[in-house]
C-alpha cells in the first residue's frame, strides 16, 4: 500500500480549569496591518490562560522578538507545570462554523500528525506533502527561534486533500454525533464557532484507507489528467506554509544534531519533532472558499499608475472606476485584471496577452521588480477587500486588489508547475482562519 505520511496524534487539549472561550486565538499571521485587532484580543484575554501567550503575532515581529520569544517559552512551561492541559490520543474531527458577508459556512477537518520526512518546500519538490506557494526563506528565522526551544507546538497549518468523492473526511462528518465531544466553543473576535469530536479507532481506519486510495499513483494521474509517472501530491499546504517550513527546518537541525552526537538512527527518527500537527481538510468541502490575498504598499515613492503604464505600455489598459465598485468588478471580471487604489483614485488594470497564467503572478512579478528599485518602503499581504481599499486610499499608500483563484485548479497546477506565486490565495477570510486550540509536545518528556 502507498505511504500516506500521517498518523494518529498525541494531543494536549485544555482541561477543566481553563475558561475555554478565552483559550483559542486566531492564526498569528492574520491582521498584520491592524494593531487594533490584537490590542482588542489582548484586552479580551486579560490575565486568563490563552494561546495568545503561546504564539508570536506577526504584527509584532521585529519589535523585541527575543523578549517575546523567551516569554512564549516560559508560558509554555507554565501551562505544562500548572497542569492546564489534558492528554488525548487520537484524531479530532473539527467542525468550524463562521458567518460574514458571504453568509454562514460550515467546514470539516481532521487534526493529525504528518511526517516532515515526506515534506519538501523547495521549488520543484515532488514530495508527498508540498508547498503551494513560494517559501520566503528570510521569513523563517524568527519562527525557527520560537520553535527551537519550545516544548509545545500549536498548529494553524491547514493541509488540503483533493477528494471529490468526500471519501476521507465525509464519513467522519456524517457520523460525528456518534463520537465523544471534546469541545464546543464560541470563538472571540467574530471567529464563529468550533466543535471537536474524538474520532474512534474504527473511523480512523477508514480515514487511513481512503487516504491510501488518494495516494495511489494511477488514480491520481487519471483524476488530474497527468502522466502516470507524475509523483503523487497527497497533501497541499493551504494555510501555514511558513509554519510548516519552520517545522521542517527545525527538524532537519534536530536530526543532524542528534546524529552528530552518535544517537542511533531509529532513536533519532522516533523524535517527536519529526512530526507536525496539522488540520487536514478536503479541497472540495463546500464550506471552504478560496479568497484572494491583496497587496498594500506603504511609503510609496513613485506613482504606481504611471509605473504600470511605463512598464507595460499598450499591454495594459487602465480604466478609472469608483472605489466602491472596484472589488466587485475585479472579482467578476473574466479577463486578466487587478485593481489599483490610491489617494488619487482607483482603476481596474486589464493585461493583454499576459505571460503568466494567474493575475497574481503578473502583479507579483512586476511588484518584485518595481519594489527592488525603491518604489515603496514596505509591502503587506492583506486579507479582505475592504481593508485593502481603506489602507490603499491613505496618502503614501497604494492598494492592489486581486481576483480569487479557482480552487479546483490547485492540485493540477502545483503538480505540473510547482509552487504558486507567494500569497496567491487565502482559504477564507481572516476571521475564518484556524484558531489555536490543540497542542502537542515536540520535545521529549
Name a few traits of the molecule:
445 residues, alpha+beta, 2 domains, ten-stranded mixed sheet, seven-stranded antiparallel sheet, 13 helices, globular
List the uncertain runs.
Answer: none
What structural category do the secondary elements indicate?
Answer: alpha+beta
* Number of β-strand runs: 21
Helix residue percentage:
25-40%
Measured between the Cα atoms of the first and last residue, the distance is: 33 Å
Proportion of β residues? Answer: 15-25%
Largest sheet: 10 strands, mixed
Summarize the helices and strands and which ones pair or pack:
Blueprint: E1 6-7, E2 10-14, H1 35-45, H2 65-81, E3 85-89, E4 92-98, E5 105-115, E6 119-120, E7 129-130, H3 140-148, E8 152-153, E9 158-161, H4 170-174, E10 180-186, E11 193-198, H5 201-214, H6 217-224, E12 235-239, H7 241-260, H8 265-269, E13 275-282, E14 290-298, H9 304-312, E15 316-320, H10 323-332, E16 337-342, E17 345-351, H11 359-372, E18 378-383, H12 385-392, E19 397-401, H13 410-417, E20 425-427, E21 440-441
Parallel strand pairs: 6-7, 7-12, 9-13
Antiparallel strand pairs: 1-5, 2-3, 4-5, 4-11, 5-13, 8-21, 9-12, 10-11, 14-18, 14-19, 14-20, 15-17, 16-17, 16-19
Helix pairs in contact: 3-7
